[in-house]
Structures are given as structure tokens and as C-alpha cells.
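Need C-alpha cells for this chain, all 118 residues.
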Amino acid sequence: MTDSTVAIFPGSLPSHKQDTVYFDREELSRILGLYGRMVAAGEWRDYAIDMNREIAVFSIFRRTSEVPLYRIVKSPKLAQKQGAYTIYGLGGQILKRGHELEAALRILERKLIKAIEG
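Here are the C-alpha cells for all 118 residues:
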């Protein structure tokens, strides 16, 4: 090797966007719309977004220091089977699965209606 030779090691470069599962603009807008309404109702206070090669996760917290109250998970590998979207509850139980985000979020929207009425 000379002084001008560049050696590239596997894994040393950042991964490409197509390697990461993420929520697109429409999905994120829909999730954040529901999140904003629940914050206004005093039910939720914080969120976190995590992404990797297999799934994207939108975690919802009542308090920052707690474990997530709900997790909205996008898993494209399950799109042909149970559906790409899964809503998990506090204990990790599956509350709803769906091929469409809108349908999966309905379970959380019902909780918004109960929070407003109650």
C-alpha cells in the first residue's frame, strides 16, 4: 500500500437507506396526528422512533421514564402474512394487526374516544 491507497473495511461505511425500514411521510403524519390528539387529551407524553433492517417502531410513553405504553411496529416481511403493521400493548401483547396502518390504529383511536368521554 502506498500513502495514497484507501482501504475500505466491511461495515465501516454507513448503511444505505434501503437497508433500513422506516415510516414514510404519510404513515408518520397519521401516527403523529393520533399522538397529538392523545397528548391534548392528557393520555400520552412522549414518544421514540427506532428503525433497523427488519422493523420500524414508534413507541408511545405516558411518562418518559417508563416502558412504552404502546408500540406501533412496521414489519414489511409480514406484509403478505398477518400484515405489515402491529400494535403492541404494555405487556407486549398484540392488540391489533393489519395490512393497512389506518385499520391497525383504530384500536388506539377508540382509546382516544374513551379518554375524551371519560
